[in-house]
């Protein structure tokens, strides 16, 4: 009976992610259409985030309808380029271990927390490779894990992929308003 109760309580565990940072609200999305293609380059992320960020940014820009095509920077020749460099910081490992241990010992009653910060620097380059402008953003993701968060799921943020999409929208919106794209 105890094993069944333990299995039931562990099955109620969930995680909820929330974003914060300096992302201005993007009023108009998708952006107004433009005929030019765009090359996108994403650099500086650890391997566990790299593919996800690259995929979400490319999909967000492709779905915006603003660009004729969105390609990887290595494939592009003579098109505008959006070069994105991301610096990633996370909470110290010892803090993370304390959170996870308290969550495990309390069987999920005390939630665990993972915290990531991203400093994003996006540079818009013309087809000749000259810099048109630079946009910087600071975004944060906080993920809480525990069984009580099954009740918080309807109120949870958009998660990591939503944060990346919001960042891409914010950057493209500012670049379009500045006349760089």
Mean pLDDT, to the nearest integer, reads 76
Largest sheet: 6 strands, mixed
Principal-axes geometry comes out as elongated
Q: Total helix count?
A: 4
Q: Report the β-strand fraction as a percent range.
A: 25-35%
Widest beta sheet: strand line-up? 1-6-5-4-2-3
Low-pLDDT ranges: none
| Percentage of residues in helical conformation | 25-40%
Radius of gyration: 20 Å
Question: Which H/E pattern describes the elements?
Answer: HEEHEEHEEH
> Got a strand count?
6
Distance between the termini: 63 Å
SS-based class = alpha/beta
Walk me through what this model shows.
The longest helix is centred in the last third of the chain and has 19 residues, at 159-177. The chain has a 6-stranded mixed beta sheet with strand order 1-6-5-4-2-3. The chain is built from 4 helices and 6 strands, in the order αββαββαββα. The model has no long low-confidence stretch (mean pLDDT 76). Helix 2 (47-63) packs across helix 4 (159-177). By secondary structure, the protein is α/β, with parallel strands linked by helices.
């Amino acid at each position: 009976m105890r094993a069944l109760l333990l299995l039931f309580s562990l099955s109620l565990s969930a995680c909820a992610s929330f974003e914060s940072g300096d992302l201005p609200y993007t009023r108009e999305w998708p952006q107004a259409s433009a005929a030019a293609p765009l090359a996108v380059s994403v650099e500086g992320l650890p391997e566990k985030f790299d593919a996800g960020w690259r995929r979400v940014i490319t999909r967000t820009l492709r779905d915006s309808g603003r660009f004729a095509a969105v390609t990887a920077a290595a494939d592009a020749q003579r098109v505008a380029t959006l070069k994105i460099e991301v610096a990633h910081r996370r909470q110290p490992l010892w803090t993370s271990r304390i959170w996870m241990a308290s969550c495990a010992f309390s069987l999920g009653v005390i939630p665990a927390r993972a915290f990531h910060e991203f400093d994003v620097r996006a540079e818009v380059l013309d087809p000749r490779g000259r810099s048109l402008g630079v946009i910087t953003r600071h975004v944060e993701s906080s993920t809480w894990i525990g069984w009580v968060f099954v009740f918080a799921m309807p109120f949870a943020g958009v998660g990591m992929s939503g944060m990346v999409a919001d960042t891409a929208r914010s950057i493209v919106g500012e670049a379009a308003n500045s006349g760089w794209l």
